[in-house]
UniProtKB/TrEMBL annotation:
Organism whose genome encodes this protein: Kitasatospora saccharophila
Aminoglycoside phosphotransferase domain span: 32-264
UniProt xrefs under InterPro entries: AGP_Transferase, Aminoglycoside_PTrfase, Kinase-like_dom_sf
Pfam family name, one: APH
UniProt protein name: Aminoglycoside phosphotransferase family protein
Superkingdom, taxonomy of origin: Bacteria
Coiled-coil features, chain-numbered ranges: none
């Protein structure tokens, strides 16, 4: 259990929900297919995926995916999840849930990606297409106004507290003073003012599928929103340096956008470390690796090159 308000689920529950609401799939085998911080996933048969939200907030995000993904998919060169059924509460489970078409692919990582520079360029092209897609009347309001599409100052107070928590947990393991300085570099800049666009909101490696060594699909649009693109770039510090450089070269964001993106990368990581320190240590380790990648990058090419030689993610 990762959250205080989490609703538990397992394979038996998925079988019951499918049998009750989708009898045409009721005889198919159900196996666990991974878990994120907001949903647990189950493969049903060979071609279906059930996502069970962990919390009521995650359930609301599922409704957003079902509404907008079919409209966005034609604008994108890579597959995204295709909703097939909107589940309702049942079988003792109080939240809405979803069935999607199964997308083949492995999580982006050292065993799946052959060319990190090419991967970074592909990811940049996906981001360009998504950010340029027609808003179709969508505005930054309600469920499409997730905080990462706004400005850094909205989270300034909460992030200050997270640095304190990280210091208590990590001691001198990480140069948190330097990281806080980089965070404040982003805060000192003017807030973003360009046009709004579509944002995925969480382009971390586990949401990027790979086949034959290349990006093959992008999944988990639970953080889908409309807003400014700065925080969208933050997960590239979860990728090896050559992927990050290719991504930046392909998109060519201005220095202010990149500095704010780096500040967002730091903010999200220092929030994740204390929140998941005991409940999901692997996620906390990913956040720690991101912060080390930021420090290596600003230390210069020599440190960045050394980081690339570590098992990926760097020193997780």
């Amino acid at each position: 259990m990762l959250h205080e308000d989490e609703v538990p689920g397992d394979e038996a529950l998925v079988r019951a929900l499918v049998a009750e609401q989708c009898p045409q799939w009721g005889g198919l085998p159900v196996v666990a297919a991974g878990a994120g911080t907001d949903n647990t996933m189950y493969r049903v048969g060979g071609g279906l995926l059930v996502r069970l939200p962990r919390t009521a907030d995650a359930a609301r995000a599922a409704r957003k995916e079902r509404e907008w993904l079919p409209r966005l998919a034609p604008s994108l060169s890579w597959p995204v999840p295709e909703p097939l059924y909107a589940g309702v509460p049942g079988a003792g489970f109080p939240l809405v849930w979803s069935v999607y078409r199964w997308l083949e692919g492995a999580e982006a990582g050292p065993d799946s990606v052959r060319d990190w520079a090419g991967f970074g360029a592909d990811l940049a092209q996906f981001v360009r297409e998504l950010h340029g897609a027609d808003l179709r009347g969508a505005r930054r309001t309600g469920e499409l106004s997730w905080y990462r599409g706004g400005g850094l100052r909205a989270v300034e107070e909460s992030i200050a507290g997270r640095f304190g928590e990280c210091r208590a947990l990590l001691g001198g393991e990480l140069d948190l003073d330097a990281l806080e300085g980089l965070w404040r570099d982003g805060l000192a800049l003017p807030e973003p003012s360009g046009p709004h666009g579509w944002l995925h909101g969480d382009l971390k490696p586990s949401n990027l599928l790979v086949r034959d060594g290349r990006l093959s699909a992008v999944i988990d649009f639970g953080c889908l929103s409309v807003g400014h693109p700065d925080a969208e770039h933050a997960p590239v510090w979860d990728l090896p340096p050559e992927a990050r450089r290719a991504y930046r070269e392909a998109l060519a964001p201005d220095e202010a956008t990149w500095t704010r993106a780096r500040a967002w990368a730091i903010a999200v990581a220092v929030s994740g470390i204390p929140y998941y320190w005991r409940t999901l240590p692997a996620f906390a380790a990913e956040c720690l690796a991101r912060l080390r990648a930021v420090l290596d990058e600003v230390a210069g090419p020599e440190a960045d090159a050394a980081a690339a030689a570590w098992p990926w993610p760097p020193r997780a």
